[in-house]
Structures are given as structure tokens and as C-alpha cells.
TrEMBL record:
Organism field: Pradoshia eiseniae
Span of domain HTH merR-type: 9-77
Protein name, UniProt field: MerR family DNA-binding transcriptional regulator
KW S-adenosyl-L-methionine (keyword) present: no
UniProt KW DNA-binding keyword: yes
Chain coiled-coil ranges: none
GO molecular function, one term: DNA-binding transcription factor activity
Keywords: DNA-binding, Repressor, Transcription, Transcription regulation
Family annotation (SUPFAM superfamilies): Putative DNA-binding domain
Classification via SMART domains: HTH_MERR
Record Pfam families: MerR_1 (PF13411)
């Protein structure tokens, strides 16, 4: 089940209002591979609350002078660590429940 933070339901205009970023900057960050919005059947971008948080982190790093390639590398590492952690937790939970039977 997808958490509410991960559901892609927010339009780019609302994201722009929430973050203070221009539509062009948001699209640019997508082009650079820093985030991947969902798309409706008609191709309209939809973002999640997690995407909004990511955009805020990106904006902060860009203000500090960090290049988009460096930001992408860091985001990729964080994502990989999160996936590994989630898999480990699932494994521990599964092992715990199997042992009780």
C-alpha cells in the first residue's frame, strides 16, 4: 500500500506555489533526473508530497551552489540506502513471524 506522501496527486502549478520554484525550474529538475513525477493518461504531471520535499531539498542545495549532478548522486545514494533498509526490515519481520508459527 502506498503512503499518502508517495501518491502522485499534486499538479505542477500547486507544486510551484508550495515550493516557490518556477514551472521551468521544476521541469528542468525532472529533465536532469532529480525527480520523476507521475503522468496522467493525457501526460499531465502529478507530484507527491515526497516530491515536494525533494524539490525543497534540491532548491536549498542549488542555493548553496551545489551542481545538479552532485544532487542527483546524493539522491540516488539516499534512495538506494532506503531500499536496502526497507528490504532488511521486511526480512526481519518475515523471519520473526515465521519463527512464531
Amino acid at each position: 500500500m502506498t503512503s499518502f506522501k508517495e501518491k502522485k496527486v499534486i499538479s505542477i502549478g500547486i507544486v510551484s506555489e508550495l515550493t516557490g520554484l518556477t514551472l521551468r525550474k521544476i521541469r528542468y529538475y525532472e529533465e536532469r533526473g532529480l525527480l520523476a513525477p507521475g503522468r496522467t493518461e493525457k501526460g499531465v504531471r502529478k507530484y507527491s508530497f515526497a516530491d515536494v520535499e525533494t524539490l525543497m531539498k534540491i532548491a536549498e542545495k542549488r542555493e548553496e551552489g551545489v551542481q545538479t549532478a552532485e544532487i542527483k548522486e546524493k539522491l540516488t545514494k539516499e534512495s538506494n540506502r532506503r531500499k536496502i533498509r526497507d528490504e532488511m526490515i521486511k526480512g526481519q519481520i518475515n523471519a520473526q513471524f515465521r519463527m512464531r508459527k
